[in-house]
């Protein structure tokens, strides 16, 4: 994964309050890591473990240190840093970059960017964005809907009725995240996010009707950009040989990008209202997350009653 500097400025420049100060010829430089670096030790002369390939952030501390040095010494320290292939330098808190820094950025074609945001806030915002950009990703075939605040990924074979079920859930007041192609991203160790491709966002394909614009039909409150996936509901056409969990004592999970997600398998046949069952699955997941399992509680009550009546 590589993010060109010009793309970061184009997409996030307004949010991060960016101003390009120098190094315009280096806008094709790329960011290859999600981590940031504060080059305080590098400016002090310790370059043995200088992580130069990260975005370099110059905050109040780095700039005040440079100002404390004689002009020729400050330039010498900066020159040593610029010997490395730095993707870009960002000066925070609206500080004016030193002239030496501007000159060297132009000389070495390193974009020098200024932001009016305070260092801690800027670091948090750009780290969040970079983490999402560099997160491991995959795509799955299904429908992702926000049901009662839970991200429900509906999967199943072609023609089983995933989109129709998603459309009915939207009509019942829930929100569409993605249809057909769901883009998954793993954030941190166990957060699985789902979103739609920007090309088909907020659209659904319904057999017999074609492509429908959900936002246009149901309003802006019927869609959302992304959602953490909590539950997977697998729809499967009913056959007499299909084994279905009747009690729900044993929890079943599936895994995407090494993140386990609770899974319910619902057989589809004529007369079953699948959208209501998916609503119940979302609510059941919420109960199970609290450590309560209705099937286990019922089983304990029955066993207790059997033991009481046993002669």
Give a topology summary.
Elements (H helix, E strand, L loop, with lengths): L2 E2 H12 L1 E5 L7 E2 L4 E2 L2 H4 L11 E4 L1 H9 L2 H11 L7 E3 L7 H10 L3 E4 L3 H16 L2 E11 L2 E7 L5 H10 L3 E13 L3 E6 L6 E4 L3 E4 H5 L7 E12 L15 E4 L2 E10 L5 H16 L4 H16 L2
Parallel strand pairs: 4-5, 5-6, 6-7, 9-14, 14-16
Antiparallel strand pairs: 1-3, 2-7, 8-9, 8-10, 10-11, 11-14, 12-13, 15-16
Helix pairs in contact: 7-9
Structural account:
The protein folds into two domains: 131 residues, HprK N-terminal domain-like (Udp-n-acetylmuramoylalanyl-d-glutamate--2,6- Diaminopimelate Ligase, Chain: A, domain 1); 163 residues, P-loop containing nucleotide triphosphate hydrolases (Rossmann fold). The longest helix is centred in the middle third of the chain and has 16 residues. The protein is an alpha/beta fold. It is elongated. It has ten helices and 16 strands. A five-stranded mixed sheet has the order 2-7-6-5-4. Strands 8-9-14-11-10 form a five-stranded mixed β-barrel. Strands 1-3 form a two-stranded antiparallel ribbon. It starts with a strand and ends with a helix.
């Amino acid at each position: 994964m590589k993010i060109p500097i010009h793309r970061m400025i184009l997409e996030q420049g307004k949010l991060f309050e960016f101003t390009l100060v120098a190094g315009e010829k280096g806008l094709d430089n790329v960011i290859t890591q999600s981590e940031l670096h504060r080059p305080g030790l590098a400016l002090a002369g310790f370059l043995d473990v200088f992580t130069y390939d990260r975005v370099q952030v110059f905050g109040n501390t780095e700039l005040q240190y440079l100002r404390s040095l004689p002009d020729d010494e400050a330039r010498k320290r900066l020159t040593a840093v610029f010997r490395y292939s730095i993707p870009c330098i960002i000066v925070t808190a609206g500080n004016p970059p030193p002239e030496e820094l501007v000159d060297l950025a132009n000389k070495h074609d390193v974009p020098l960017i200024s932001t009016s945001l305070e260092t801690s806030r800027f670091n948090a915002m750009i780290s969040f964005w970079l983490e999402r950009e560099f997160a491991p990703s995959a795509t799955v075939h299904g429908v992702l809907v926000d049901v009662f605040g839970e991200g429900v990924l509906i999967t199943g074979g072609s023609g089983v009725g995933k989109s129709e079920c998603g459309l009915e859930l939207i009509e019942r007041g829930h929100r569409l995240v993605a249809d057909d192609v769901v883009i998954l991203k793993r954030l941190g160790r166990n957060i699985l996010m789902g979103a739609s491709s920007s090309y088909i966002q907020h659209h659904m394909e319904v057999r017999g009707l074609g492509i429908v614009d959900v936002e246009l039909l149901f309003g802006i409150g019927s869609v959302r950009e992304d959602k953490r996936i909590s539950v997977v509901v697998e729809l499967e056409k009913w056959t007499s040989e299909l084994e279905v969990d009747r009690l729900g004592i044993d929890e079943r999970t599936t895994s995407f990008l090494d993140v386990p997600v609770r899974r319910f398998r619902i057989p589809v046949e004529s007369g079953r209202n699948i959208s209501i069952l998916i609503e119940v699955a979302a609510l059941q997941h919420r109960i199970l997350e609290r450590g309560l399992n209705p099937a286990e509680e019922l089983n304990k009550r029955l066993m207790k009653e059997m033991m009481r009546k046993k002669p």
